[in-house]
UniProtKB/TrEMBL annotation:
Protein name: NAD(P)H:quinone oxidoreductase
Protein family per UniProt: Belongs to the WrbA family.
Gene: wrbA
Record lineage: Bacteria, Pseudomonadati, Pseudomonadota, Gammaproteobacteria, Vibrionales
Domain Flavodoxin-like: residue ranges: 5-181
Organism encoding this protein: Vibrio chaetopteri
Signal peptide positions on this chain: none
């Protein structure tokens, strides 16, 4: 039985998208798990390069797990991602996301740009939907040594040196994807 994990993100300049792709690689390294990369539409205008499809509520409802990512916007998730969640009342009423595992990821232009508060802002709708949140445990060695991104709240990237992920950021994002997929697979196969 295939386990499908939705990797839902918003990315303006590509950094959050790169984290999404690293998490997707981690997800797909777990046998029987598939990553579904999806983004959300702009609220105004068009993004320069949008390569992934727009997420639907049906995909969110059907997923076995969720990884959600946003760049830091003044210490909060980006408005287009928040707008997507503001449209999920029907899923909340039906309890469609209850007990599904989820994690978050973010990127900022500086080390102290608000990664932790942005991660926590993304966790709020997930908690209201009854999802089970997971972060990166300190059993991941790179979490102890990173000088760029990566937090116990979730994967992160500091983009002050460009959109490329550091070795630590990539390793931690992949590990988060593996942890999410492994958990989602165990939960799905237990039912």
């Amino acid at each position: 039985m295939s386990c499908q994990i939705l990797v839902l993100y918003y990315s303006r300049h590509g950094s959050t998208q790169r984290l999404a792709r690293a998490i997707a690689r981690g997800i797909e390294s777990i046998e029987g798990c598939e990553a579904l990369l999806r983004t959300v539409p702009e609220l105004e205008g068009e993004r320069e390069s949008q390569t992934d499809a727009i997420a639907t509520l049906a995909e969110l409802k059907a997923c076995d797990g969720l990884a959600m990512g946003s760049p830091v916007w003044f210490g909060n998730m980006a408005a287009p991602l928040k707008h997507f969640w503001d449209q999920t009342t029907s899923l909340w009423l039906s309890g469609s996301l209850i007990d599904k595992p989820a994690c978050v990821f973010t990127s900022s232009s500086s080390m102290h740009g608000g990664q932790e508060s942005t991660a926590m802002s993304m966790m709020l709708p997930l908690l209201h939907h009854g999802m089970m949140l997971m972060g990166i445990p300190y059993s991941e060695p790179k979490l102890h040594s990173t000088t760029t991104g990566g937090t116990p709240y979730g994967a992160s990237h500091v983009a002050n040196n460009g959109v490329q992920l550091s070795e630590e950021e990539y390793t931690l994002a992949t590990a988060l994807g593996q942890r999410l997929a492994s958990t989602a697979s165990k939960l799905k196969n237990a039912n």
